[in-house]
Every structure is written in C-alpha cells, then in structure tokens.
Amino acid sequence: MTLTNTDVTDHIMRLGEQAKAAARALGLASTDTKNAALIASAKALRESLPVLLAANDKDVQSVMGKKPDAFIDRLKLTPDRVEAMASALEQIAALPDPVGRKLAHFERPNGLNIERVAVPIGVIGMIYESRPNVGADASALCLKSGNAVILRGGSESRHSTEIIVEAMQRGLAEAGLPAHVVQAVGTTDRSAVKALLQADDYVDLVIPRGGRGLVELVANEAKVPTLLHLDGNCHSYVHHAADIDKAVKIITNAKLRRTGVCGATESIVIDRKIATVILPKLTDSLKGCELRGDAEAVSLEPRLTLATEEDWSTEYLDSIASVKLVENLDEALAFISKHSSGHTDAIITEDNEAARRFLLAIDSAVVMHNASTQFSDGGEFGMGAEIGIATGKMHARGPVGLEQLTSFKYLVHGTGQTRP
Amino acid sequence: MTLTNTDVTDHIMRLGEQAKAAARALGLASTDTKNAALIASAKALRESLPVLLAANDKDVQSVMGKKPDAFIDRLKLTPDRVEAMASALEQIAALPDPVGRKLAHFERPNGLNIERVAVPIGVIGMIYESRPNVGADASALCLKSGNAVILRGGSESRHSTEIIVEAMQRGLAEAGLPAHVVQAVGTTDRSAVKALLQADDYVDLVIPRGGRGLVELVANEAKVPTLLHLDGNCHSYVHHAADIDKAVKIITNAKLRRTGVCGATESIVIDRKIATVILPKLTDSLKGCELRGDAEAVSLEPRLTLATEEDWSTEYLDSIASVKLVENLDEALAFISKHSSGHTDAIITEDNEAARRFLLAIDSAVVMHNASTQFSDGGEFGMGAEIGIATGKMHARGPVGLEQLTSFKYLVHGTGQTRP
C-alpha cells in the first residue's frame, strides 16, 4: 500500500493503540497461557509451510539479480529454516517467565512492606532487515515477556513477514490472547520507520537489528527509548604473562569462527615483550586473514601490512584484523579505552591480578578473561535467546534476553500508614 | 560570563571531557576513598558557611521583588539549611556502596564463569531550579555511586552553587580524587542546557528536577538518556470494602500532608456503594481543600464544586482534589489507567483479592494498598536518599537512589574456551 505521510502516522498510531490494548491484556496473562500461545504459534507456522515458502519465493524473486548473494541467502526460507523458526518458539516457551519475579523485598520500620516486581515493558517496536526469522524470534521473546510487538522488517521480506505474523496471530487467538500482541507495520513506506521512532505515546522501546546504517538512523531519529549497539569493535589483548598457545587458539576463534558477528575480535593488542614469539604463530594460525599492524609489528612479522589510523576504530566484519603493540597493561588499557566501541573486550593472561585490573578498568558491556570474544551472545550466556545486544548503559547492557525485556514496579502493602 | 552558541557548545564539551576523565578515576576508587571525599566535603561546606551565606545573599538580593516569596524561600540558605546539606553528605557516606555489587552469577556448561556486576553509569548531567541544596545532594549521590556530575542549577542560584561546588571540590582533592567529579556549568546562558542535552559523547544520563516547564524541555530536547517524571497525577481509590475511617485518615494525609510534592494524591476515586457514607466524612476531614466532584458526587455532598473534564488529568500541587464516583473495581481500573501519569496510585480496601487485582493491573511505578501515596519517596523506601523519581519504564522506575545510579557489566572468566 502507498500512503501519504499523515496516513502513515495515523496508521502507526492505530497500530500503537491496538498494541497498547493488547499489551494490557497480555500483561495479566498467566505463564501457561503465554506458553500455549507460543506452542500454538509453532504449530501454525509449520502448517503454513507451503504458503510461507510461496510468499518467500515472491520476496526472493523480487530482489533476484538486484541484491548480493549474501542478502538473498539471508532472505531465503527453506523447510529446514522454517522448522528452526518453529522450534525456536517452542524453546522460548520452555524458558522461565521473566514477569512477576520478585527483584527486591524490604520491610520498613513503619510496617510498610515493599516489593519490587518485574513487569512487562509494554509495546516494543522491532526494526530489522531482510531475515524473516528475526521477526518470529522477536515476537516470541516479546510475547513471553508480556510485551506487544510491532514488527518493521525489511521491505524485501514483506510477503514472508505477513505469513509469519498471521501464524503467530492464529497461535495467540488459539490461546485466547489478543491477535494485536504481534503486528507488522505492513506498509513498506520508509516514513513508517520514522513514525514508529517518534510514537512515544504508544511505543515504549525500539530495538533495531541490522547494519550500521539502520542502527544509526534509529539512534539519531528515535524519540522513543532504544536498546542498540552501533559497532562491535572488539579487542583481544595478549598480556606478557599469557600462555602463548592458549592465546593463539583463543584469538583464532575470536577472529575467524564467524567474521560477520558483532562479537568477533577486530583488533589484537599485544605486549611488546612477547611480540616476537607470538606474532609468527598468530600469523600462521590466522591464515587467510589480513593482518594490519603498526610499524613495529610489521617490522617483526613481514606478512603483516601497515595499518592506518583509521584501522584502530574499524569494525571489519571480515577476515581482517588490526594488530597493535603496547608496552604494558596500562598502555593496553589506554589504547582499548580509546578505541573500543564498548561491546566486548578480552584479556589473555595467566596473571590473575592483571586480569582483575583489566576487567575492572575496561568500560565495556562484556569484559572477558581467557575466552573468545565470540561468546558474547545471549544463547552462550544461558539466556536462552537474545533479541539483540546493547552497548548503552541504561536499562540493559550486553545480550538482551527475556529478563532485559522487562521493567519493574513497586508494590507497597500497608495497613493504614500515613506519612508523618 | 556571556558566550556565543559555539562557545557554549565548546565549553560544555570541555566540561564533558573533564567529567569523563574524572569518572574513569572515580570508578576505580575504593568505597573508603569515596566516603572520605564526602566527609571532607561536608567539613569544607561547614567551613565555607560565611562565604556561602554571603554568596546566597547576593543571589537572593538579585531576585528580591521579582520572584514570588515561595521562590525566594527555596533559594534562601540559613545556617540550619547549610548544616542540613553538610549532614546529608555524611548520611550518604554512611550508605552502602552500590558499585561492585554482584547482581547475578552463573556458570556455563563449558566452564565459563559469568558475573553481572554493578558499575557506575559515567557522567550525569543534573538540571534543576533554584534550590541550592539539590546541587549538593545530587553531587553526593553521584560521587558515592562512582559518577561524575555536571550541575546546571537555576541562574538565580549561581553564586551559591559556585561556593557549594568549590567546597565539594576541596573535599574531593583532600581524598585524592579529581576535582572534576563535581563541576557546575558556570554560564547562565540558556543554550548551555541544550548543549548539555545534546552532548551524548560525554554525558551518559541527564536528570532534570523542577517544574513541568523544565522537565518538558528536557524530555523534548534530550539526545542523552534521561530519568524523569512529567506529572504526578496520583490517585487514591476507596473500594467498597474499605475501612471508612482508615480511608479518611489515609486520604487526608495523601492529599494534605504536603500539597506541593509529586506523590500527593490529586484525584480521589470512590465506589458508588459507599459514597454517601464516606463523602461527608472526607469533606469534613479535608477542610480547607477544594473538592471538585462529578455531578453525582456533587449531588450527594453539596460542599463539592463541579469538576470539568480537565480536572481528571490535572496535577494541582495545591489544596484541590478531584472526586470521581465509579461502579466497581473494573471501572476504577479503567478510569485510573486512563488518567494516571504512572507515578503512584493506591487502593484502600480490606479485600485482599481486590487489592491484588489493583496492584497487578495498574501500570504505575508505585502501586499501594492501604497507605498514603506520599510514601512514594526514596527516603521512605529506605534508599537513604533520592536524586529524583522516574516514571519511564527503562532502567529505573520510581525513586532514583544510589542503586539506580549504576549500570552493570558482565565479567566473563574463562580458562581458554573457544566457541564451537
């Protein structure tokens, strides 16, 4: 559908009103009801397999030849991928309910009994790109945490998204919950994103998931609170007291396990004292990866190319890493503090005191000792699933799972107390 | 000082850089060092008494005859008020350190050991009006929670603020902490507020404290995250199963103990079934308070005046309350959900099941049963002190005390784990 700007704003406001009403009902639903909706949604998704694949084929055909292969691969659904989506819904049903947890409890001298209890946030706007499964995962995480969701997926995936939302809505209806718990923006009009970002009367939180352009747009335009990360410029620092073989193994994994994820190491920082020993081993192990070092590193290991100033703050998301030599822990802390994007940074050392100093001093969402930065992930943290990763310092930081999709309120139980 | 807009932006950025560097050092300081700084600041404040009173007199003289008496009373310092400020610093020193608390701890099957630990937020911008003690309290709460603060008090209090900041900086220096932990914007240029609200590279959080105009400005202009509340349109609902005398006593306190605080009840909601019994008693007890009721309430109790639609969403901050009759709990829930500003709402009833339904269904930061809404306060909650009250759902909700001035990070302890 094509709409004027006013139409788009009205449309988003209507979705917002519907979402708010649905969220109110969902917020009072029992865990069993929410789980029943998730399980019924999984079933509905499996039943819709032929329709979904046909819709997805329409999406794929419309961009064929116009978008890179990697884009089309992210967009494409197969029976296996649909099954994985359905089974993710069931896995989220099996996770503990984050709503209603008693976060704190205190009794005051005047007898007031005060509880801090987890409650849903309300209405969440989810803005993402071409992968249709992001819509299903996000809907399931929002539903389980008692939140209504408004999905705004990439316009290229609109036919697939429509079928996925219909399946979730059938699941919700079957459990007696309002269908408007899960809605899609519908229109592919770009002004809809802006309207969603400004709709602070209806939307409590926006989570963008995608490339830097999308996330930057959201960060700049949102009036609504957001949970997001712009960059994952992650560092692995090899301290002079590191076990060299362990360091090579960890960094190879941190850089090359998957180069396109935000927790991949982009910059390797090495103590000068051990550089001649580790550089050749690391270069061997990171075969196929371009290493861009400072002048000193290049002089020690000629397979390195010379880095420019820009490299120190670049998130490559590719088989490239920068290599910086430092004199000691203090210099490493200064360098990483200057260039880190606050996502994940690691130290590799057998010196526990040095590790402790690093973990305290580096101001990133996740700081690691002797482990691969690629562990920075909700699933790996045992959260069951994540809707994104946040690098801001308000509300949630690091992987955003079910608990992070809740707020809280204070319940005050009195017996007639008045304040002196 | 008078500055151009570019000058103001540069000035705020320089304060921001200094604050960020100071916050880094403070974040690593021990509890003892922070407490020593607070105690030394209290001493410095007492020593500065004559200078502070002289500066305050300059502030008071400059607005004499131009501002209402209540404004001048808020601005005015006396030896007793300065002593109260100093002793508040010592009380904050005595509170537990919110930094370093272990918020969660989990071990993964692969042996990764993950802790979630409270850390300071970083740099906090505090924007307030004429009361000089707000600057001292906020500085102390920020210092204790490991955050640097940039104060922007009302221009009328600038001489007082200058002396208070100097005293805090002497206290910081004495404890070996950087003076830039506490800074004042200095210039009274109004564009400084805007520059502070936009400085998201340096400022992690802005907290406004003051009248609706100030808070609205911050809510609309801030690029930086904020913790704030616009309105405190608080309700007290008398359920038909209430103990009438208890209800009268609670509501009299909730409305009249202090009418100018955000937790004061502004709207009284009453079940029709008990209206004839409670209305005369309530009107007697709330003497001096104007009661604006709906037509039915006015017909039952002629001392009431007729409310307009606007009254239901008005925060009077005065000896006025609106009175609404409802059929039952469901109607009360609908009415309060529609008009509440999400601050604090209370039910008065002896029926625990009705109370439970109310506490779950009302989506406000604080919900109460059989207690005065005026208890909605950090001190009354046992937080020791509060820097403000938040009605947003992200990060902190309700009273914002020391714990709410922290973020957290994940510390991941490995033994060489790589991700499969």
Outline the structure in words.
In chain A, 43% of the residues lie in helices and 21% in strands. The first copy, chain A, has 420 residues and is of the alpha/beta class. Chain A folds into 2 domains: 5-228 and 398-412, Aldehyde Dehydrogenase, Chain A, domain 1, CATH 3.40.605.10; 234-375, Aldehyde Dehydrogenase, Chain A, domain 2. In chain A, the strands form 4 sheets. Chain A has a 7-stranded parallel β-sheet, with helices on both faces. A 4-stranded parallel β-sheet of chain A has the order 5-4-3-6, sandwiched between helices. In chain A, α6 (132-144) links the parallel β3 (123-128) and β4 (148-152). In chain A, α1 crosses α8, α2 packs across α7 (158-174) and α5 (79-94) packs parallel to α6 (132-144). Chain A is globular, with a radius of gyration of 24 Å. Chain A starts with a helix and ends with a strand. Chains A and B meet through α10, α14, β13 and β16 of A and α10, α14, β13 and β16 of B. Chains A, B: Catalyzes the NADPH-dependent reduction of L-glutamate 5-phosphate into L-glutamate 5-semialdehyde and phosphate. The product spontaneously undergoes cyclization to form 1-pyrroline-5-carboxylate.
Spatial order of the strands in the main sheet of chain A?
10-9-11-8-7-12-13
**Main beta-sheet annotation of chain A:** 7 strands, parallel
What is the number of domains of chain A?
2
* Extended strand count of chain A: 16
Q: Which runs of chain A of at least 5 residues are low in confidence (pLDDT < 50)?
A: none
Tell me which oligomeric state these chains represent: homodimer
Shape annotation of chain A = globular
Summed over residues and divided by their number, the pLDDT of chain A gives a mean of: 93
The helical percent of chain A reads: 40-55%
CATH topology of the largest domain in chain A: Aldehyde Dehydrogenase, Chain A, domain 1
CATH architecture descriptor text of the largest domain in chain A = 3-Layer(aba) Sandwich
Q: What is the assigned CATH homologous superfamily of the largest domain in chain A?
A: Aldehyde Dehydrogenase, Chain A, domain 1
Estimated radius of gyration of chain A: 24 Å
What percentage of amino acids of chain A are in beta strands? 15-25%
How many helix segments of chain A? 14
Which class do the helix and strand fractions of chain A yield? alpha/beta
Query: CA-to-CA gap between the ends of chain A?
Result: 61 Å
